[in-house]
Amino acid sequence: MLHKQLILDACSYLLLVPIKLPLLISPVLEARLEQAGVLKKVVDAIKDLVQDCNFDCNDSGIALQAMDNSHVALVSMLLKSEGFSPYRLDRNVALGVNLTSLTKVLRCAQNEDILTLKAEDAPDTLSLVFENAENDRISEYEIKLMDIDQEHLGIPETEYAAAISMPSAEFQRICRDLNQLSESVAIEASKEGVKFSCSGDIGSGSVTLRQHNNVDRPELSTKIELTEPVALTFSLKYLVNFCKASALSSVVTLSLSNEVPLLVEYAMGSGFVRFYLAPKIGEEE
Hints:
This protein is α+β, with helices and mostly antiparallel strands and about 280 residues long. Helix 2 (about 35-45) runs antiparallel to helix 3. About 20% of the residues lie in helices and about 40% in strands. The N and C termini lie far apart (about 105 Å). The protein folds into two domains: about 30-145, DNA Polymerase III, Chain A, domain 2 (Roll), CATH 3.10.150; about 160-275, Proliferating Cell Nuclear Antigen (Box). A nine-stranded antiparallel beta sheet has the order 6-2-3-4-18-17-16-10-14. It has a five-stranded antiparallel beta sheet with strand order 5-1-7-8-9, with helices on one face. Mean pLDDT is about 90; it is low at about 15 and about 20-25. InterPro entries: DNA_clamp_sf, Pr_cel_nuc_antig, Pr_cel_nuc_antig_C, Pr_cel_nuc_antig_CS, Pr_cel_nuc_antig_N. It comes from Tuber melanosporum (strain Mel28) (Perigord black truffle).
């Protein structure tokens, strides 16, 4: 009888005391990329320009906007929601990330790995899951998030006087070559073409591209839309930095107008990376 009474007492105690069960918390964000290489290339393109930034997640996708420390250049990035499959977002969330740390984690993924980003409500970490179907391997990492108080700048819609579409590899080569001679480059757009020129202590150089259409390989074409001639001078250090985004697209578009920042855009099927650079004023060539 005593044994039976002990069992009854124990059962009564269990009914009175609540049992703490583990909570199954579903992520507020779950975004799956078919190729991890896309995010790796995006981060590589901007990590030397900005160190800490917010990834703003909303219905449009995952966006980023940040200025460099000198406030001379601005980067704007968007990975559209339709580029993810699936893209599930319960509410808008900002993920404060150190790009150097993110780069280290992304190096653990192969370009062909499937990448899934996950974040919980009021997140303090970002989860990255890499899946490799060939090796049947799943790798899971977490990166600590930061509380970044970052002002979101409104980028005004601008009607540019000149828009130049050209091979990104060609733009990269021009910037790299002229950077051997000078710290600055003058970009002149006219109906004759676009001219990149510089002058430094050891000499001067220039490269002129005329408009041409490559029917067999459109990505090698140079197209110029012009409403009026434009001539502006920019820092080559920044342009060389922007060219790290060449891996994202075979084509780059340069948009210029007098007295407004240069827009350098690399468009991807799933979004874009745009760089804005203030012109140099009052410098002699």
